[in-house]
Here is the input.
Amino acid sequence: METIMTDLLCIGAGLAGERVAVEAASAGFDALCLSVVPPRRSHSSAAQGGMQAALGNCFKGEGDCTDTHFTDTVKGSDWGCDQEVARLFAETAPVAVREMAFWGIPWNRVVPGRSTYFKGGKQFEKIEPAAKQGLITARDFGGTANWRTCYTSDGTGHTLLYTMDNKVVELGVRVHDRMEAISLIHDGETCTGVVARCLKTGQLRAYLARATLIATGGYGRIYRETTNAVINDGGGAIIALNTGIIPIGNPEAIQFHPTGIVPTNILVTEGCRGDGGTLLDVNEERFMDKYEPEKAELASRDVVSRWMTHHIRKGLGVKSPYGDHLWLDIRHLGAQHIKTKLREVEEICNNFLGVDPITQLIPVRPAQHYTMAGVRTNKDGAVYGLKGLFSAGEAACWDMHGFNRLGGNSLAETIVAGKIVGGKVAEFLKGYEVAFDTATTRNAIIKDQERIDALIQCKNGRENVFAVRSDMQDELMDHVGIFRNGKDLQTAVDNLQEIYVRAQQVGLRSNGIGVNPELSLALKIKGMVRLSLCAAYAALQRTESRGCHAREDYEARNDRDWLKRTLATWDEGANLPTLNYEPVSPTFELAPGERGYGTCKIISCSDPDIGD
Amino acid sequence: MARRLQFDIFRYNPQDPQSKPHTDTFHLDETDSMTIFIALNKIREEQDPSLQFDFCCRAGICGACAMVINGRPGLACKTLAKELPDQITLMPLPVFKLVGDLSVDTGTWFRAMNEKVGSWIHTDKTFDPAALEERMDNDQAEEIYELERCVECGCCVAACGTANMREDFLGAAALNRIARFMLDPRDSRKNKEYFEVIGTDEGIFGCMGLLACEDVCPKELPLQDQLGILRRKMGWTAVKNLFRRG
Here is the structure.
């Protein structure tokens, strides 16, 4: 058995994983990243919009400060976040952005003088001051009081990831790509590395490390319709949950975005609606203006997604081989506007749909977008339950997003958390020694080899892994989606429990030799159904509406009973997660109140409990 | 009436001693907006679960899914079936090491490239967390971004005559990367230092000027211009070097 040793092992080489590795390597430690794809293909690259940091350089960002960024983040989270973490994040973001500039990001800069911008389809004028010429500029994003989102054109995630990986190359940090961690090596108290399957040969390999980091991103792929990359299937969350010790924080906190294109669920930007685009149904009639007379198509993401789903359920969606959808209409904005201000949308529609948005309607529907849920850590990024294990980025529930993440705060989290957690990992590594127990390591490998053999030899059954995945994805889509209610969630839990039985009876149809893709999926399908059950069951228990978690049968945000975070663990042999709860935040710098958008029914902490 | 599409796909699993390189044929009914991404996943799920191919973002952003589609390197995720004839032939990219079927190892190649060209800002300065960022002209930032858009998909390398003949040729992606850092005022390297990396037949002087790289680049990078500019700059540097030696 090939065994490789290092000080810090990062599972995942996206922005968060590499940022932590860079910090540890800069402190003189040996760092090694595993990645299922070449690092520059990580899903971080797909974040186009930008990264929030309160620099206050541009005219519309004047007077911006970390206090406002903190407040926006807490309100965005619907008071579901850890405020100590949100504060730490907001304070560190400006330095993190400047550091990325120092490392080579070609951030867009302030251009002094007169220029125009659009809001609600109307044109306005602004004047940038000469004093700020050449400093990092920012653009507007939802849920923020100021223009705060730093960007490089429409490729912010791409430039951040390339610059970060440049740093990794410069520092000589090893990256073993096409290498998938399939279990954590631990003795119930301390994590000492992972068992990984090579996606070039299919061979198993042990990685032993003094510190291990889970930075595998989100897991949108448990849903059928998601904007996420195909690799976002929960790898890191699954191996954590499988320990039976580590909790997933707020597994029910899952964000949807209103306009994914059909069939591939690639995002088209909110700018379409911001500039005056409309949503149409099967009769090519508008509907958002009827549900939300005031804001119409420009209500918040969760609200628009909810009404779109409602309208499709009423039978007013457009039938297609890929399921029902609605139309996004930007034709009236004209060729000139679309070709200049919405160029990226024009490209996506032409390249991926063969649709010309200047003359044709764009098929759209809400799609899963982000998992605020993740491996629960403390503010240092240390994972609950196992010593020597850390987590950062979308994979983690650190928890600065609570029940709703703001646009521009995901890229920011990867860099900022990476910097902070990386520093804590380096501190941890100083003077920390661990014994690598050969029996623990060997047993972990044997267990994984047995799983593989059982799948290839169909020892547990002949269930088709693709069919199991498809049924799981449908179940989440249909019953644990944008609108939730007790009846649907109970149905989901019941059905997912049946799917969970089938997931344990999967057997391969192909021979499983080498980098067999059927085997790759079969190895994690049980874990994916576990994550699905965590989402469904935790959502069923949470009898309130908060951020993205919208219960039709409990419409109010209930601070009296639910100002707490769900912690889901999985006992081996169980068919449901065990749910525990902890206070949402150690401090309340910003007392729970109204967000200023969306519905505002609140049961406050001081309201008497009248029983229900 | 939907078309019946025929996919002729290269198959070989180097890990399986029984496997020999060959072509398998699959059939699918075309659906609206079908891309090669949708088609290949359908084939894997319904016809052959062992079929190897690479997709990641499936949105033309990450560069994972480059393959040879009816003789031309391109990103499979943004290739629509309706732009192709009824018969579609899919082959893995040449030059890169085969992992299996349509999957090739671009990661190792590009890491080596990034190490070779020193793909990072070279500077003696240290970051000061208390200081404001250094100012930069927005036009200059956008010029750098224009070249920074490369997604390392490997299409330009696969389509390159020189890269197909000689293993040590850096390729357009590497030369474009050098051009990106030459533009960047934060990088302290001088032409002389760049010359040491690319002033050879493995670098800019190995380019035969066939320019398939620009034709197949899915990001439409201005590779022809960059190769021309580099060749001139490095030519001058070579002449200056001659004088210094003389």
About this structure: Residues 517-541 of chain A form the longest helix (25 residues).
